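To assess whether ligand presence alters the predicted conformation, the chain was also submitted together with zinc ion. Input:
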Amino acid sequence: MSTLIKNGIVITENEVKTADVLIEGEKISTVGKSITAPNAKEIDASGLYVFPGGIDVHTHLDLDVGSTVSSDDFYTGQAAAAFGGTTTHIDFPTPRKGETLRAAFEEWLSKAAGKAVIDYGFHMSVVEVNNKILREIEELPDWGITSIKVYMAYKNILQLTDEEIYRVMQTAARKNITVMVHAENGDVIDFNVRNLIAEGKTEPKYHAISRPPLLEAEAVNRAIYIANAAGANVYIVHVTAEMSLNQITESRKRGLKVFAETCPQYLFLDDSYLELQNFEGAKYICSPPLRKPEDNEALWNGLKKGDLQIVSTDHCPFNFKGQKELGKEAFNKIPNGLPGIEDRVPLLYSEGIVKGRLTLNQFVRITSTNPAKLFGLYPQKGTLKTGSNADLFILDPNAERTITSQNHHMNVDYNPYEGFKIKGKIKKVFRRGELIVDGEEFLAEKGSGRYLHRKHLKWED
Ligand SMILES: [Zn+2]
């Protein structure tokens, strides 16, 4: 089957040009002027943008957090992603203590089996360290997993000690595995949480007070230095604060190696949302927490300058009713996480390009090319070149809409960006050459998304 997209404005990481895109089978065959293909189905894209499909490298679908399970599974979450122009994501198999990495990997494959509608890969979470786990880390590349995640927070649950992190990083370095770090000082935060609760300070806003930017910046710095001492590639997930970004920028200036991401909630929302009445602040609880408007601005600058390379979502949705409500008595019982997998690309387009904060090329790099390069998927994904997977979306730059949970596709009863008016509307989405979103219609067959065997980080600036 072939498709010819005519006269669109085709945008990649380094080009903007009016061109035709010929898709043959699952791949891009040619991008150029006046292509003819008599047997291809033709789509007129005059006046419309053609972008590489989004890649969201930080999601938590169908994740059991102990008290409850994130509300999107691999079907609902991936379908919502597709409506938002995202055609690839990377999720986190998270073993229980005592479980092998292999068991977690297989559990996640089975969560996706028969449900997947976009392509997906995995990063492995490492939540305890012993010789057996270290040996298993060395096997991960054979399973297509070239990145792992460690937590410096969530004491007694996911948190590792500095020694454990160093040992994991040394092992990862030997196999050229990238180490992603959740950087917050879990020991101090745990102490703060216990004290606040004991003082009767239980409302959602105290969640943010228990984990201030200083405790993030400290951990970011520690993560960078330990990783560089171990010789590992390090990637700081969900950077939220100017102070943390400064640690990254300074480290890079000193010649230390570090990559980092932020997320839409840290660009578009701030901690005033935590003070919403009637417990609605709980809708905005995530870790690290929402910060100040000055932090939002600093993060935009980091993206512009390239000190932050990626915007991912940390999509981890919980319904307000019945799930966020688990923390009515105390903020530390509120499941942590926000939805965003559907809104990342449209929000960044509207707030980034339309408002002049990002160029078209920067937008593509942040949402697609950099994720593909850092996580071993380039040039199979993350661009529109001959031979790349035909993952793309067509956007009408003149259409406008309002984000609302009334018509979003994520399986969650609220949207943190409710009422945001945005410019640009995604009209069609292709995944490996197949039209999977056509306006409001969803066309992908359950199980048609594919597991991606990823290669290693390959980055040249
Ligand atoms: Zn996460």
